[in-house]
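User: Could you go from structure to sequence for me? I need the amino acid at each position, not a summary. C-alpha cells:
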C-alpha cells in the first residue's frame, strides 16, 4: 500500500493528478502558503475570485426517506443558491452538509475540496460560469498547492451536471 501524503490523508491529490495525466489535459500546479479560504488563496495565486472554483458539499432531502449529497461548484466570488439546488432536485430541503460527512464524501479536508467527485454518493453540479472559465483555479486537495486548468477540460473530466446554481454576482 503506498504511503499517504501527509497533506492529503485520503490520497485525493494523487488520484486527481493521475486523472489529469492520463487524460492529456494541460494543467499547471501552483505552490503557495497553506490557505483554504477562497479570497485569501486567490490573492496568493494572483487571480480574481471569479476564476476560482468554490466547492461546497450539500445535503439535499428529496423526501423523508431520500437524502442526496451534492458537490456544488460555483465561481469563487459567488454563493451557492440553495433555492436553485432545492428546485433542481425537487427537494424539500437543501443545506450545507455537516463537516464529517463533507470530508468523508469529498475525501478532502475543509478548504481543499476539489470540484471533482471520487465518491459515487457525491453528485457534482457546476454553475455554467465555472465551465466557461478559460482558466479555472482550485486547491488541489492540499492547502499548499493549487491547480489551474481550463473550464472546458474540467467539464470534460469531471462530467458535472451543469446548471445555474450560483447566486447573483457581487455588485
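Assistant: Here is the amino acid at each position, in order:
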Amino acid at each position: 500500500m503506498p504511503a499517504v501524503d501527509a497533506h492529503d490523508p485520503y490520497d485525493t491529490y494523487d488520484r486527481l493528478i493521475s486523472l489529469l495525466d492520463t487524460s492529456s489535459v494541460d494543467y499547471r500546479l501552483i505552490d503557495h502558503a497553506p490557505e483554504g479560504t477562497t479570497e485569501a488563496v486567490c490573492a496568493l495565486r494572483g487571480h480574481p475570485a471569479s476564476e476560482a472554483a468554490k466547492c461546497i458539499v450539500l445535503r439535499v432531502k428529496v423526501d423523508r426517506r431520500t437524502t442526496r449529497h451534492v458537490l456544488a461548484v460555483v465561481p469563487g466570488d459567488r454563493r451557492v443558491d440553495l433555492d436553485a439546488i432545492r428546485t433542481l432536485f425537487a427537494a424539500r430541503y437543501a443545506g450545507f452538509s455537516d463537516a464529517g460527512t463533507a470530508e468523508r464524501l469529498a475525501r478532502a479536508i475543509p478548504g481543499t475540496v476539489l470540484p471533482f467527485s471520487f465518491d459515487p454518493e457525491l453528485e457534482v453540479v457546476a454553475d455554467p460560469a465555472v465551465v466557461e472559465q478559460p482558466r479555472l483555479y482550485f486547491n488541489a486537495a492540499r492547502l499548499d498547492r493549487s491547480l489551474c486548468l481550463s473550464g472546458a477540460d474540467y467539464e470534460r473530466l469531471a462530467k458535472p451536471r451543469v446548471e445555474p446554481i450560483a447566486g447573483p454576482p457581487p455588485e
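One structural detail worth keeping in mind: Confidence is low (pLDDT under 50) at residues 1-7.
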